[in-house]
Design brief:
Blueprint lengths: L19 H12 L16 H17 L2 E4 L5 E5 L8 E7 L12 H16 L8 E6 L12 H6 L5 H4 L10 H7 L17 E9 L4 H5 L3 E7 L1 E10 L3 E2 L11 H18 L9 E10 L5 E2 L2 E10 L2 H22 L2 E9 L3 E2 L2 H13 L4 E6 L5 H4 L4 E7 L15 H20 L3
Parallel strand pairs: 3-4, 3-5, 5-15, 6-14
Antiparallel strand pairs: 1-2, 2-4, 6-13, 6-15, 7-11, 7-12, 8-10, 9-11
The chain binds glyoxylic acid and manganese (II) ion (2 copies).
């Protein structure tokens, strides 16, 4: 006879434990999809490898017996009903896409830990008051199109048509064209928004991707806010010309202008880099040069600029200063400059009640934690716009991420996943 579903009394919650071997096995299995040089992982959004990782997840969800729903962009939701079917659901997850030559854990940890937590609940026949949905968001990384948190932004109703205009990959494929092939157009972007009344909260476990937890020797971080980026492309257009015959004073070299901008981004951000100044960071991470040959003066240079802070004010000030520099460089060098906006986001505070609940979960297990902001972007930053969102971090070795050197210790991974399950049970069972 099938065992009756049970709702665990609060006192028993700590006895519900994940299967560590199974968690590590699944993490390993996903990291083999898209594995490359030096143990790097590449699963760019909408690539075959990324689609395979989603198939892996769907297969696992089916085996566990989750009710699967896939929306138009490909976000995957695997649901366990709650004791009260009409209660709004707790969503728990992250993303499976990666940067180019990234690591094994960024995003993947959050999805696979949520999967293991759901499997534990199913296996032990535990029913919580609210439904729980394991979620994998499509395209959190901006590496391919310069557009981040695509799937969660659609779920939060935060994608604006004008933001898509300049989103294209290195081969020139436009994000808008890919979306159109899925039946997603500028005029129905909002139709993918999930009704906030169907969501109770969102939880995400992620690697820290920074050095703080390791330095402080704390196994867990509890996130209070997420720094948000302003991103744009800059196109400098000068004059391509012969490298042997054009005198230095007659050149209009787009790449030299771009080089000045790269240095200017660093200089301006360094002036605002201290914590009390908003800890602004700025990066030029990609550049295309034309014609890009040894014997021609570069006539065109296109750069990506990514500026982030947990202070909206500080970020705005830095963006203004950088953009003024672009104008100044262009004028002085008699070159044209165009700024193509990609995304402008505000830093996002996470839910204070969830911060408190996550602290309590750590305290019950006697785990040291650090309460901290996140410098990296996450799907939680979109979900926070439509529901209460909370995040847990585990340490990253030497703070390295977006690199094959990205590493977190199995012990920390398992602890993070266990605390994720603990907090899921509490959030789904309690009024928050
Ligand atoms: C996501 O990884 C980001 O770029 O912050
Ligand atoms: Mn990332
Ligand atoms: Mn991530």
């Amino acid at each position: 006879m099938k065992a009756q579903p049970r709702i665990p009394p609060a006192a028993h919650l700590q006895q519900i434990t994940i299967d560590k071997r199974r968690l590590l096995r699944d993490l390993n299995a996903v990291s083999r999809i898209g594995i490359g040089d030096r143990g790097s992982v590449t699963r760019l959004v909408f690539s075959i490898k990324e689609l395979r990782s989603r198939q892996f997840l769907i297969h696992q969800m089916r085996q566990i017996g989750l009710q699967i729903h896939i929306d138009r962009i490909g976000n995957i939701f695997g649901r366990i009903d709650g004791a009260h079917a009409k209660n709004p659901a707790l969503l728990v997850g992250s993303h499976l896409d990666t940067v180019v030559h990234g690591g094994k854990f960024d995003g993947t940890l959050g999805v696979i830990a949520a999967l293991e937590a759901a499997r534990t609940l199913k296996e032990q026949n535990i029913v919580l008051q609210s439904p729980v949905e394991v979620v994998c968001f499509v395209g959190e990384e901006s590496s391919r199109f310069g557009y981040s948190t695509l799937g969660s932004s659609l779920v939060a109703g935060e994608v604006r048509g004008k933001d898509l205009a300049h989103a294209a990959d290195a081969q020139g494929t436009k994000l808008e064209d890919i979306l159109a092939s899925m039946g997603i157009y500028r005029n129905n972007l909002r139709s993918m928004r999930r009704d906030p009344s169907t969501i109770k909260a969102y939880l995400e476990l992620h690697i820290e991707q920074g050095p703080i937890l390791e330095a402080k020797k704390k196994p867990i971080g509890i996130v209070t806010s997420i720094a948000a980026p302003t991103r744009f492309r800059v196109v400098f257009t000068g004059q391509a010309d012969h490298s042997g015959t054009t005198p230095m004073e007659m050149r209009r070299d787009a790449l030299v202008a771009a080089s000045e901008l790269i240095v200017a981004v660093e200089k301006v951000c360094r002036r605002y880099s201290r914590v009390e100044q908003g800890r602004v960071v700025g990066t030029v991470g990609a550049m295309k040069i034309e014609p890009g040959v040894i014997n021609a003066i570069p006539g065109r240079a296109e750069l990506s600029v990514d500026i982030r802070s947990i202070s909206a004010e500080a970020k705005k000030r830095v963006v203004r200063l950088v953009q003024a520099q672009i104008g100044e460089i262009a004028r002085r060098r008699n070159i044209e400059a165009e700024i193509l906006p990609l995304r402008e986001e505000n830093p996002v505070p996470l839910d204070k009640r969830l911060v408190r609940l996550l602290k309590e979960c750590c305290e019950v297990r006697n785990i040291a934690y650090e309460v901290m902001p996140s410098g990296a972007g996450h799907d939680a930053m979109q979900m926070a716009k439509i529901t209460a969102a909370g995040m847990l971090f585990i340490p990253s070795r030497r703070g390295i991420s977006h690199s094959p050197l990205e590493w977190s210790e199995p012990e920390d991974i398992c602890l993070g996943a266990q605390l994720l399950l603990d907090s899921m049970i509490r959030v789904a069972n309690e009024a928050i």
